[in-house]
Amino acid sequence: MIFNADEAHNIVKELGYAFRYCRSSSEDFVIESVLGKADYNHNKVNQWTAAIVEQSLTHLVKLGKTYKYIVTCAVMQRSGAGLHTASSCFWDTTTDGTCTVRWENRTMNCIVNVFAVAIIL
Amino acid sequence: SGPPKRFPVAAVDDILKDVLGSYLREQPYEPARCRDMAKDIAEVIKARVKDLMIPRYKIVVVTHIGQLNEQSMQIGSRCLWDPASDTFSSYVFKNTSLFALANVYAVYFE
User: Fold this and answer.
1) Is residue B2 assigned to a domain?
2) pTM
3) Which of A40, A103, B54, B78 could hold A77 in an S-S bridge, CB 3.0 to 4.6 Å?
4) Name one GO cellular component term (chain B) (predicted).
5) CA-to-CA distance for A90 and A106, rounded, in angstroms?
């Protein structure tokens, strides 16, 4: 069993079934559906990050693979400030993997990381 | 069945505090330096958590280092796992010019 990063990447990017905003070839749909054309709002950002990670997890579960998942989401107001993210993992490189999706609009940046860890049943 | 030895969250909290503090205490935000530091810190934390020798746990370390301006941000995560055996540790460090967040996720290899 090999972790399919493209599949996970597409989940986060492409799912937009009942969402209001228009698709375009390079948009990231789970993120787009939650953040879309909104402006950064400190009062709402908590529920936005929760919605993004929960929807991503739901769609990852639907892949039906025997994996545990960790999904991280960072949403930051665009102000010119810098942000660096790094990760280091101790796992089985033949079965486990990660993918990252970056998204932005006029007022905010969003970074979603997915880590998938295999289990043996 | 479940893990023979539970993951020591408190010991890992101490590791995070120690590593972030020693690397970043007097460090001002500089883009290239902080980019390298994020990677180095993630590697060092992973190595020290491995040294705790907790059997059958896979480890994911995520670090964020950002500039302290007037901007607002939110970082969150959710995990699909077994809460009886899997857990995480998290620590935030701030000085006058930057902030850093380190998370360690420990996943039991069933």
Assistant:
1) no
2) 0.83
3) A40
4) cytoplasm
5) 37
